[in-house]
Write a structure and sequence with these properties.
Layout lengths: L1 E4 L6 E4 L4 H22 L8 E4 L4 H9 L6 E4 L22 E3 L10 E4 L8 H4 L3 E8 L8 H6 L2 H7 L1 E11 L8 H17 L4 E6 L4 H6 L4 H8 L4 E5 L5 H10 L2 E4 L1
Parallel strand pairs: 3-4, 3-6, 4-5, 6-7, 7-8
Antiparallel strand pairs: 1-2, 2-10, 8-11, 9-10
Helix pairs in contact: 1-2, 1-6, 6-9
Amino acid sequence: MNVDTGITSEVFTIKSETKLIDIFNRIIDKKSKAVFDYIESLNFNENKRIIVIGTYFTGVGIVKRLSEKYKNILLIDIYPHLEELLHTDLGGGPINNVDFSTDLNLIYSGDVVIDTTGFGGINVEQSSKFDVDTFIIEDPVAEDNDELLAEKNNIHERLDVVKAKDKAIIKTKGINTKTSGTMTLTIGALTNLLNSFIEKEGVLYCACEMGFYEEVIFKEMNIEKFIELTSVNAFKVSTIKPFDLDELIAEEISKITSEMI
């Protein structure tokens, strides 16, 4: 436990050993494991051409996990700078054995296609042109608790028009967030944890190290800065009675489930 004195000797500052990037990675790991296990169940040849569409953040985790076994993987994204995520610790260790392209014409060049683009991504017309062995799509909705998002969600229409022997949906939920995005789930977990910490006897206040990193990634296009900002202790709590933050973080993240349906 990381404990320091606060303003006075009677008040302590406790910090989580868990870093913000660790929370991202634990959530990404749940998604990538679900996909990996599903693909393994299909008994594919290791040289099957696997196309993953979308990097942020599910895609990068999936390709890193799949690259442990499969040899012919292409990650496609319209944002060229997101290739840098392959060489960071987000979603797994840095890798160099996955190809990257911004050419959307290549989305049809695989035997297996994994679409993680969610809202505003690959549309129904584009989806109708797929004729593949396996097609997997990520459901951007988590708990079905927002009517507008439910109306916007067109993954079932996209999946219906795809020609594929095997089709599956990545469904991630568990902590009452509106969407299943890793950023959304992380913020949801952080919010839930802050609320639980402040309710503990003896806690003065608490804070988490979270910013609106979407701007850093997509406006500033600064991946190095994003990794630096998230490589910090996730929580700091001022309290007169120290407790184990990391145990509670693990409990919260354990509520998140990701499965193939």
